[in-house]
Amino acid sequence: MPDTSPIIHRAQKRLSAKLQDGTVLACTTLAHPPSRMGHHPRHIALIQLEDQSRIIAPLTAPLPIGSSVHPRMRLQSVNAEGLRIYDVSFESLQEKTAPMQVFPGYILALTGPTGVGRTTVSRLLLRMTADYAEAVPILKTCERRMRKDERTHCLTKRAFTELKRKGEIVAMAHATTDGDEECWYGYRASDIERIWKKGKLPVVITETHLLQELAAHYGRRSLLSFGLLPPGRSKRTMLSHLLRRLLKKGDRSEEFIRRSLKHAESELAFLRERKDLFDRILVNGDLDTVVASLRKHLPTPESSGYNPRTSL
Amino acid sequence: MQREIFLSGMGQTRFGEHWDKSLSDLMSEAIDTAITSSPCTALDIDLIIVGNMLGEIGSDQAQLGSLASSLLPHRPPAIRVESACASGSLALHTACAFLESGRAKTVLVVGAEKMTDVSPDVIAQALMGAADAEADRPSGLTFPGIFGLIASRYMYEYGLRREDLSLVSAVHHARSKENPFAQFRSEISPETVSESALVADPLRLLDCSPISDGAAACILSTEHGSTIRIAASQIAADTLSLTHRPSITTFPATKEASEKALLEARIKLSDIRFLETHDCFSIAALINLEDLGFADPGHGVDIYRRLYKRKSDAEILVNESGGLKGCGHPVAATGIKQVIDVAKALCKSGERFGLAHNFGGAAATCGIHILEHTHA
Description:
The complex is a heterodimer. By secondary structure, chain A is of the alpha/beta class. Chain A has helices spanning 5-16, 93-97, 118-128, 157-165, 189-197, 208-218, 235-249, 254-273, 287-297, 308-311; strands at residues 22-30, 42-49, 54-59, 68-78, 84-92, 107-111, 133-135, 138-141, 152-155, 169-176, 182-188, 201-206, 223-229, 280-283. Chain A has 10 helices and 14 strands. In chain A, the strands form 3 sheets. Chain A has a 5-stranded antiparallel beta sheet. A 5-stranded parallel beta sheet of chain A has the order 7-12-6-13-14, sandwiched between helices. In chain A, strands 9-8-11-10 form a 4-stranded mixed beta sheet. The longest helix of chain A is centred in the C-terminal third of the chain and has 20 residues, at 254-273. By secondary structure, chain B is an alpha/beta fold. Chain B has helices at residues 23-37, 55-59, 64-69, 87-101, 120-127, 143-158, 162-176, 190-195, 252-265, 282-292, 300-308, 323-327, 334-349; strands spanning 6-12, 47-51, 78-81, 106-113, 198-200, 203-204, 214-221, 228-237, 272-276, 317-318, 353-360, 365-373. Classes of the chains: A alpha/beta, B alpha/beta.
């Protein structure tokens, strides 16, 4: 089969649904893979994914049957038209989660598309629960100081890369800001651990990447994960709702809104496809109701399951 | 079967590397032998069914029905069927359908494949067409890889040891030594198999059937009688991709086709004396014996242990021809060659029933034919 653009486009669309952790059911090493794959032996496995579907995919190293694996996008080749072809490889999960096998404590994560009201909800919630919840500051690379915000720590790209190299950043993602500026943002492990030490519950605002990386680092059960959806039954009504909210803010450029909506579409799909990453999905129709129902599901310091100081 | 169908003629080329013969030459040789061996003449043939998988890639040749028809003086109508390695049995099944309906009275079935004209890499890629191009191929999987996955899982589930798996190819080579049409006519020891080059872990080079050229032809007729009749012809299908199956250590298509075939032939499994099974890779032979019901899951190798010791009281004789490993595997010719080998074994021994089991891909298509020796 030729590696033409439409074929690759379809293949990559299917692959994104398969970006899940899984278990190796069978594994083989091809001594002579097809020539388009290069000449090194290739390890290929039949993997059972979390959603119970199966996939045949390469492994980064041969693994015994029953191993837990984690997906990773890898550049496979560049075709004649200059299209970069990515492939999902799976690697052993054990190495990644080994440092965090002890339950470290809970983190409250709010996930949802831009404009759904994550920031507003978290602000309200934090105001009501200031005695036992605290926002984790976001580290963000920016060239010039943008809007001042007590919850955002700006630093230079170099400083961010340095932190990343040292492994201090547990989750990070890439974004384009309103000013058309490329930036990285993420959360620092020390910030989260500082809040735990105070005996408080860290609150983070995430999106697909951050949530998955936090789950991979601290373990899924550390996350009290809430997905926020805009009101509406169909994708279209949800998106038009988001559009209205973004327009109401008034200070966003048209390009930013267009990009946000496009991104929102994939975030909505993520909320639907990766239900396993969320404890509860809430519809943000009325702020008070959402905050009230969030509070209801929060562990209080008195409740038995939550005692960060002893779990650390 | 709705009508009595006889195997009135059969012929095949030697399987192997035929650098001096084209696809059409191979077909012609098999057809000539089949017609010569039968009581009818070329002009009695009403219809040709051609089985072929790789004509376009191996020989730049499509329209194989017409190509086969051109080899006969009266240019009978012809149809090509394709279902990868099961093309041969599917061609036979199609012929049976025409004969049963009365649309044809004598049908020539020919399976031919020319694989050695292009590089092994091209052929390996083309063979991967027998798996799911969207679900299986992008990972870089090859067909030995598919059976490597199956073998690794089988070993994990049933604790099969490498040295036991090596018995399969050793048995097949011991049988093909006696077969003048076989590609490999030398014995190999199980140790040689275990020590051969790694192809797709845990499968080694001598676990895999080879790339071969060859053709095989049969004449099936409701008019021209013979001592061998087709007692059953059944096919079954399964998902193309392994990813859609609940288990990869068993092939449900084999079970389904064999149950239907035994019902059609109105016999019990124990009536079968000769079995030609589709051992494209050694592990497949073990799974096939289990799916056909000759062994319990995980115990297929017990039969090969007995065959290796050449116990004459073995309940079933498997791949007396040498199987795909010993004889070679020109994809679409295999299903027809298996039927020819079962017929030869029945005629020679005077036993009554034999079964040919042929599958395509990882048993995504399975074809089963039961032959009866009427004078037994």
